[in-house]
Write a structure and sequence with these properties.
Layout (H helix, E strand, L loop, with lengths): L1 H25 L3 E3 L2 H9 L3 E6 L3 E6 L11 H8 L7 E5 L6 H7 L3 E3 L6 H29 L17 E3 L13 H15 L1 H5 L8 E5 L6 H12 L3 E5 L10 H16 L2 E6 L16 H16 L6 E7 L17 E4 L5 H12 L9 H7 L5 H17 L7 H13 L10 H20 L6 E5 L10 E4 L10 H22 L7 H16 L31 H28 L1 H14 L1 E3 H7 L5
Parallel strand pairs: 1-4, 2-5, 7-10, 7-11, 8-9, 9-10
Antiparallel strand pairs: 2-3, 3-4, 6-8, 12-13, 12-14
The chain binds adenosine-5'-diphosphate, magnesium ion (MG) and zinc ion (ZN).
Length: 614
């Protein structure tokens, strides 16, 4: 259907171009003559009609007239190319008070308006304005479609397709679990929307903008919809990225439209998802950013402008609050922030309880699963439960069992198992020693997180094996010593490779990235290098998308010291790892041997290895 449409479109375009060209080349034109020549022609009675226009005089030469003694040879040539009764000349208008008299003397039909030439006017109009206009427009559309711009030119400025209005979201707080603090803070908004008159009685103002901040998948969108659902008000939502348009001014129009719609249905909630796409800190780099800036400014002014007595509350969500333009966070705008963090163990248990109701399951110890899934978000847990149900279905089970869940955790953690994929024996050996290296260091160091599983089954495209550690409990503070232990464990794989094979392989890329990241954080964010002082040299690096930054906040000398400190931290962690590996070489060999045989070792297998603690 679309293809056919495009064909027709192309055909029409071609047709129009041909028509235009034909018009340009064949349409009768007039030959330009001077006013003197015109008067001479007039006086020698060679003109049949004269049309006086604002800026030119157009006259037709009598078909039989011989103008050869008045006009130049070139003009005659040009004239001869025109059809016999359409040999027209054009002259500039000169302020000549005698002209009319002269015309009357010669008894020439003349007109001030080209009324007998309506057709001419239309043709001129077509030739000069409409045709090129249409063709330009078509070419433009064509080019745009070639540029893969999804926006239809005809849709510009109409935001109807992009703003989603839901009368009732049908979501309540019951559908949201594990983020109790955020829920408690949201209650106030719900309460306000429900009882705004009661609040207003004493002059209280509605909170205008509330920003939900948290990593992806933690339930920000869900919470926003639940707030609207609880308050039973319409939910008008738009994604920040949908404001960002190719055409300057469209985003701003959209913002205006959004607020207009909201006012029409108030009390209601406006929800701007992924606010960061639109509200990014205005920068002054060379990239043109006019459109975003205009859109952002429009949003700011709408937020400032709306009457405190309208019950419209603006919610927005972001996972990158640091890159938001500070103007957005000022008083009277998104001055209230609600943290929607990753759930802790208790929270994960609540979320699992919520989703387990939706599947057919046997006796499942959700507490253990909650313990196995630190760092999982609500979305991850929802996926996990679904994955477990899929696995159970695939093995034709009556109900979803614990083992399905455990397999599902692995899947979600490390991608699909690829048992069948062959790796060559040498690669397997290196991988086995590498993974055992991590494990032995973790087993030997007292403060390390216990290893629950080691495997050399390939998962995903790049992971040859993995060592899974279970954090003892969810921690938000980690000590310097524990971080050093972590580093040593991360480097254990590489240390084992060196100790056994005498050289490194490329298998440790991810380890090195993690190590570098952590060591850098220790120096630059956690102030763990005393010689550098209690100074944060850097904000959270990972939260930023790389911003062009031409200056640092510290000196070249400090930069060198930082590099040096990072290197030292990593080196001493590596020294620690290699010492442990060498000391426990026989356990390493033993472990690697069993691992090559069984492919996966669980915590019981590892306990029987009996690696002594440091
Ligand atoms: P975000 O907007 O923070 O990226 P979403 O709200 O889009 O996250 O979450 C995606 C899905 O994950 C939700 O539709 C829901 O199914 C599930 N989910 C996420 N967090 C939670 C939670 N706290 N409670 C219940 N379900 C959740
Ligand atoms: Mg979302
Ligand atoms: Zn490794």
């Amino acid at each position: 259907m679309k293809k056919a449409l495009r064909k027709v479109f192309k055909f029409i375009l071609l047709f129009l171009i041909v028509m235009w060209v034909v018009y340009l080349f064949l349409a009768p034109k007039a030959v330009r003559v001077s006013y003197d020549e015109f008067q001479n022609l007039l006086k020698s009675n060679m003109l049949s009609t004269v049309t006086l226009k604002d800026n030119e005089i157009i006259s037709t030469i009598k078909p039989a007239a011989d103008s050869s003694n008045v006009l130049t040879k070139e003009q005659l040539d040009d004239l001869s190319r025109l059809p016999p009764n359409q040999q027209r000349i054009t002259t500039s208008v000169v302020n000549d008070p005698n002209l009319i008299q002269a015309l009357e003397n010669e008894k020439i039909v003349f007109s001030g308006e080209p009324k007998n030439n309506l057709w001419d006017t239309i043709k001129t109009l077509f030739g000069i304005w409409i045709f090129p206009g249409v063709i330009f427009f078509l070419l433009f559309t064509f080019l745009l479609s070639r540029m893969k711009v999804s926006e239809k030119v005809t849709d510009i400025g109409k935001s109807k397709g992009k703003v989603y209005t839901e009368k009732h979201t049908g979501i309540t707080f019951k559908d949201v679990a594990g983020i109790d603090e955020a829920k408690i803070e949201s209650l106030e908004i719900v309460d306000f929307l429900k009882n705004s008159k009661y609040y207003r009685r004493l002059g209280a103002r509605a909170p205008k903008g509330v920003l939900l901040i948290g990593p992806p998948g933690t339930g920000k969108t869900l919470l926003a919809r639940a707030i609207a659902g609880e308050a039973k008000v319409p939910f008008i939502s738009i994604n920040g990225s949908e404001f960002v348009e190719l055409f300057v001014g469209v985003g701003a129009a959209r913002v205006r439209d959004l607020f207009r719609q909201a006012h029409a249905v108030a009390p209601c909630i406006i929800f701007i998802d992924e606010l960061d796409a639109l509200g990014r800190q205005r920068d002054y780099s060379f990239r043109g950013n006019d459109e975003k800036e205009q859109t952002l400014n429009q949003l700011l002014s709408e937020m400032d402008g709306f009457d405190v007595n309208t019950d419209v509350i603006i919610l927005a969500a972001t996972n990158r609050p640091e890159i938001l333009d500070s103007a957005l966070l000022r008083a009277g705008r998104f001055d209230r922030q609600v943290l929607v963090d990753k759930p802790d163990k208790k929270g994960r248990l609540q979320i699992l309880n919520l989703y387990i109701k939706k599947i057919h399951s046997g006796n499942i110890d959700l507490t253990e699963i909650a313990a196995m899934t630190p760092g999982f978000t609500g979305a991850d847990l929802a996926t996990l439960v679904n994955e477990a149900a899929l696995l159970a279905t695939r093995r034709n089970a009556e109900q979803v069992e614990m083992k399905d869940f455990i397999d599902a955790v692995e899947r979600v953690v490390a991608g699909l198992e690829r048992r069948n994929r062959l790796i060559n024996p040498e690669e397997r050996r290196i991988t086995a020693y590498h993974e055992m290296g991590h494990t032995v260091v973790a087993l030997a160091l007292p403060g390390a997180d216990p290893v629950t599983k080691v495997s050399i089954i390939q998962r995903g495209a790049s992971m040859l094996g993995f060592t899974m550690q279970l954090p003892k409990n969810d921690r938000s503070i980690i000590t310097h010593h524990e971080l050093e232990t972590k580093l040593a464990v991360m480097l254990g794989g590489r240390a084992a490779e060196l100790a056994v094979f005498g050289e490194y392989s490329t298998g440790a890329v991810d380890d090195l990235l993690k190590v570098t990241d952590l060591a850098r954080d220790m120096v630059m964010r956690y102030g763990m290098q005393e010689s550098l002082g209690h100074i944060a040299y850097e904000a959270d690096r990972r939260a930023f998308i790389p911003v062009l930054k031409f200056s640092r906040d510290f000196s070249e000398k400090t930069a060198e010291e930082i590099d040096e400190a990072i290197r030292k931290i990593v080196q001493s962690a590596f020294d620690k790892a290699i010492t442990i590996i060498k000391k426990n070489k026989k356990y390493l060999d033993q472990g690697a041997k069993i691992l090559l045989e069984k492919e996966t070792l669980d915590k019981h297998d590892l306990a029987t290895l009996g690696v002594p603690k440091e």
